[in-house]
Amino acid sequence: MIPRHQSILFVVLLLASLVMGVLLWQTLERAHRQLVNGADSTPTQAPAVATTEEATLLVANDSDNSLLPQVHSLPLPADSGSRARAVLGKLLDLYAQPDAAHPVPGGAASVAQVFLLPVPGGSAAPPIGHADAAGPQLAIVNLTGNFVATHPSGIETETLTVLSICGTLHANLPHVTQVRFLVDGEQRATLAGHADLTRTYLAAEANQIADSRP
Amino acid sequence: MHSAKKGIVQGRTLEGFTKAQFFVAGLTVSLVALLTATAQAPLATVNSPSRFAVVLDAAHGGDDAGGSLHNNQVEKTYTLALSVKLRSLLMARGIQVVTTRESDTTVNLDRRAEIANHANAQACLSLHASETGEGVHVFVSSLTPAQPTRFTAWKTAQAASVTRSLALAGVVNSALQHAGMNVTLGRTSLPTVDSMTCPAIAVEVAPGQGSDKKVTELDDSAYQAQVAEALAAALLEWRTEGRQP
Questions:
Q1: Are B195 and B111 in contact (CB under 8 A)?
Q2: pTM for this predicted structure
Q3: What is the pLDDT of residues A98-157, one digit of tens each?
Q4: Region of poorest pLDDT, from B120-134, B184-198, B205-219
Q5: Which of A32, A118, B35, B204 could covalently link to B128 via disulfide, CB atoms 3.0 to 4.6 Å apart?
Q6: What is the mean pLDDT of chain B?
Q7: How far is residue A94's CA from residue A96's CA, in Å, rounded to a whole number?
Q8: Does A105 touch chain B (CB under 8 A)?
Q9: Helix, strand, or coil (residue A19)
Q10: Are the C-beta atoms of residues B106 and B33 closer than 8 Å to each other?
Q11: CA of B147, closest CA in chain A: separation in Å?
C-alpha cells in the first residue's frame, strides 16, 4: 500500500514535470521564431562592390624555399580588416590550385577572420573607428581548424605558409608589423607539428627572406 | 652549582663543544656549500675542451607520428632510423652522442630541449623528414642573436647561440653539398630548437633529386645512409673547427 503523502508527492512532481515540459517547448518555439526572423534574406541594401586594386602577395615556393612577390588585381574593401582577409584569401587560393609551387588545400575560406589591434606597448591607440590611421598594428589571423588539419607537415612548408601570410599582410598594410595566429579562435602550439604558432611573428622576417633572394 | 657556572663562563655547552668550535664548524659548512655552488655553476656553462658531445633529437615519436611520408611511412619512424644510424657513425668516430629518444616513445618538446641543455653539447641536431620540397633543408632559429646572459628565457634560450648555430649550418651545408645533395638553408621558429642553449639546427630530409631529375624517395636506404654519412662528416669537421685556436 503506497502511503498517502507519497502519492501526493508523485502527483505534484508529475504536474511540475508537465509544466516544465510545456515551458521548455514554448521557449524552444520562441527561439526558433527569433532565429527565422533574424535570418531574413530579403535584399534590403544594395551590396557595396569594392574597387579592383593591385595587391602584392608574397608567394611561397617549396622547391627553393623562397618567397617571391607577385602583383595581382583583386577587389579590395576599404576596411583594413576586410582588406587583410581579402589578400590572404587570394594568397591561399593560389596555394589551393593544382599546379601550385606551395600546395596547401583550403583556399580563401581558410582564413576565418583577421583582427587588427594596436601593437601592445607601441604608440597611443587610435580613436575608436580610426584604427587605420595610427602606428604599428598587430594582426591576429584566425585560421580554420580544417585548414590546419589538412596542411602538409614539414618545417619548410609550414614556415613558408606562416611567413608568406606575414609578408603579404605587411606588403599591403604597412602598419601591420606583428602577426599572431589562432586556430578556430584558440591558441595552438604548431601549424602541423612544426612551425610555432604561439609566438608573435615580425612581418619584417618574411621580407628579409624575400629581399635576400636574387 | 659552581662547576656549572664555570662551564658557562668557559663557553661549554651540554654536548661538550665550545661556542668557538660551533662557530668554526658553521663557517666551514657555509664555505663548503658556497664553494660547491660556485663550482657547479661554471660546469654547466663552460665546455671542457677535451669533451665533444652531440645531441640527436629524432623528432616526433609515440603518439605524435609527425608527417606522412612515402609508402605509408611516418616521420617518427624515419627520424628514429636516421638518428640510430647517425649515432652509430658518430660513436665509431669517438664522438659522444646523447639522444632524446631511442624508441617509439612520446617525448614532449620541452623535455627534448631539457635533455639537450643538460648534455652541454657542442652541436644539437633536430632530425625531421618531409615529402615537400627536395634535398635536405637546414634550418636555424629565427630568433635575433643576443649576448649570453646568466639567466635566459626558456622560449628564447637559443638566441645566445644563434651565431654559432649559423656557423654549424654552414658546415653542414658544405658537407651535404660535397656529398652531392641539394641543400636549402632557412630560418624558422621551432619550439624545441628555440629552447636549446647549444649550437642547434633542424635538419629536414626531403626526397632527393639527381641531375637526371630522377627522384630518390625517403625510404631508399642508400639515400638515408648518404645523408647520415654527410651529417657525420659535417660534425667531424665541426669538432675540428671547434678545436682550432
A1: no
A2: 0.75
A3: 999 999 999 999 999 999 999 877 654 454 444 445 689 999 999 999 999 999 999 999
A4: B205-219
A5: B204
A6: 84
A7: 5
A8: no
A9: helix
A10: no
A11: 20
CA distances from B85 to A62, B186, B238 (A): 27, 25, 19
What distance in Å separates the CA atoms of residue A176 and residue A170, rounded to the nearest whole number? 5
A207: cell is 621580407
User: In what helix (H) or strand (E) does residue A168 lie, and over which residues does it extend?
Assistant: helix A155-172
Residues of chain A above pLDDT 90, percent: 69
Task: Find the residue in B nearest to A63 (Cα).
Answer: B133
Q: Where are the alpha helices (DSSP H) in chain B?
A: 2-9, 19-45, 75-92, 109-119, 162-178, 191-194, 221-243
B51-243 is a CATH 3.30.360.10 domain: no
Q: What is the C-alpha separation between A56 and A111, in angstroms, rounded? A: 18
Q: Domain residues of chain A, as ranges?
A: 1-31, 52-212
**Among B189, B181, B201, which residue's Cα sits nearest to residue B134?**
B181
Strands A137-143 and A176-183: parallel
Which residue from A103, A152, A156 is facing B186, i.e. has the nearest CB? A156
Q: What percentage of residues in chain B have a pLDDT greater than 90?
A: 65
Q: Which of B187, B194, B204 sits opposite A154 (nearest CB)?
A: B204
Give the residue among B223, B239, B224, B215 at the shortest CA–CA distance from B77: B224
Which A-chain residues 2-31 have CB contacts (< 8 A) with chain B? none
The residue with cell 660546469 is B43
CA distance A152 to A92: 14
The pLDDT tens digits of the residues spanning B120-176 come to: 999 999 999 999 989 999 999 999 899 888 888 999 999 999 999 999 999 999 999
CA distance B178 to chain A (A): 19
- The rounded percent of chain A whose pLDDT value lies above 70 is 85
**pLDDT score at A63:** 87
pLDDT score at B16: 52
Which candidate from A153, A159, A199 shows the least CB-CB separation from B186? A159
**Cβ pairs bridging A and B (under 8 Å):** 79
Residue B71 confidence (pLDDT): 84
ipTM over 0.85? The verdict is no
Q: How far apart are CA A195 and CA A206, in angstroms?
A: 14
Chain B residues whose CB is inside 8 A of the A61 CB are none
Residue A166 touches partner B, C-beta closer than 8 Å: no
- Residue predicted with more confidence, A183 or B48: A183
- Listed by start position, the domains of chain B span 2-43, 51-243
